[in-house]
Predict the 3D structure of the following.
Amino acid sequence: MKSHYLEIAWFGALCDDDYDQLGVVNENLRSSWAHCSDIVRAAEVRGFDSVLLPSGYELGIDAVVMASALAMVTTSIHLLTAVRIGENWPPALARQLATVAHLAPGRLNVNIISSDLAGEHLDSAPRYQRTAEAIAILRDLLDGRPSTSDGDFYSFNVTPPRIATGPRPPLYFGGLSPAARDVAARYADVYLMWPDTMENVAEIIRDMRERAASYGRELRFGYRIHVVVRETEMEARAAAQHLIAALDEEQGRAIRSRSLDAGSVGVARQSELREGADDEGYAEANLWTGIGRARSGCGAALVGSPQQIIDKIEEYRELGIEAFIFSGYPHLDECERFADLVLPQLAHAPLY
């Protein structure tokens, strides 16, 4: 089923994850206000709808603080701000997000991450139970309604922040475990996926539609993936190989293990995708897994000519995906290249 409109987002690179070659640190590409705001402003000028501001516990700079600052220097681009539930008290987080929404009216989207607190490890079921309770509280408070909670993790009756007058920002959420899928089906607006084969993407969408319908709900679907686009497929493949040319396996494992979420079901699936790829790292046509050798999370890229990338996006759209979050290395250069070669050919419309 093709969506009525297409949301095209770029990536804000807040988590010290920007390279000319993966694993080779370039101080000029480290996360900073100057570098990351340049990426976001370039994405806005070039016509992207939105930008993901990712969140890592130890890595880079804080997404909510950065969103507040970016609200002051942008005018149209949506700020998809990642928040890690395990590290936040829901009423305080609601106040922070309401403040960003106040600074960027109508331009805040929220990416919920079901994280542990650093130094803590909850099993999947209780961690997602905490996340479900937190999302229910955030939905109320950001919509300007009081929230009463008497759950396993939160118990209080709290009024919304004064500046939270609704409508609340849309909530993006992802995860492959049964518990994660249930939380998304009950509470998310956009179910966000990492790269996978077309067959598996179709199956995940089918499953999530059924789960959402059981709660009387519908979901939109999003897809987070890297991209390496060049004038020809040969040039794109060469650029992809250049990205990993200086990376050894031990270094790649060290980079992947830095994430607190490195043991999740979603991360495990990215590893399986990589292990099942061909000798050049392709899991299927134009879906290259080599980039996952140096990333814990989203671990594959679309690699090809502009028309091949456009055709692949159209295939995803036919499955029901209508929100795409792209990234590429270095993020500023690939943002501009994607905007020149691909973006004008995509029929995307203003959000919401």
